[in-house]
Give the backbone structure.
Amino acid sequence: MSLGVFLAVMGAALLHATWNALIKQGTSKLSGMLIMTLVQGVAGLAIAMTRDWPTAVVWLWLLASGLFHAAYKLFLAYAYEQGDLSRVYPIARGAAPMIVILISTMFLADVILPWEYLGVFILGLGILAMAQGVFASGESRRLLPLALGSAMATAGYSLVDGLGARASGDPVAYVGWLFALDALFFTPACLLLRGRGVMVADPGAWLMGGLAAVASYGAYAIAVWAMTQAPIALVAALRETSILFAVLIGWVFLAEKMGMTKIVAAGLIVGGVALTRI
């Protein structure tokens, strides 16, 4: 991996942690997530309309992925209402690859190597340590099932998108339609859960949501580009430094409490993810 690609992937990791911090910082996490999703949806649709129309098979993958992405954002927004960025993000981000590997072991023909099993074990230790910190610090225990729900949805769209993008043959169009469908599914879900009030936001909230959309789309675009320039496994592993960025942003900019248990747990999660993706 060249220095340029390395720095680009690190920048993508920082962007991913940043958009999560922007959503966490907003007054209404669900409104912020909705604004971000709507902006992404419009941009995705504009890009997708410049490409060839997906085939019927690809539409099935896109529909499934759109539902998973909408669920992921719902769980994540609710989790951020219950807990810190530096607590929720590592659990939600770290548990997803562990779930993917477990599903692959049970239902797919993928070969799981010894160090990947070791990575799952270390991941589990890190997530347990991070979860234990919830009980020790008196934080809301509701964040745990919500963060894990987000991780399960992430695992779902990761598996679906991997197969769907291959079936599409046009990742740019696939991602564009995905963001458009995500907005189509996520918007009515927000209205059903919170009513029309979820659409009411001041200019500052729209600015934050718009910035989050740019950061999110940019992080994804950089990651996709990097995977054409360097081994996919190395890029995927390096992206997980976003967990450490999220912990640092929570500590430095959001004034979240930072104990040794949280630091060690985040380190274990990053190390475990890296081992599962080498």
Notes: The CA atoms of residues 72 and 150 lie 5 Å apart. The two ends are 13 Å apart (CA to CA).
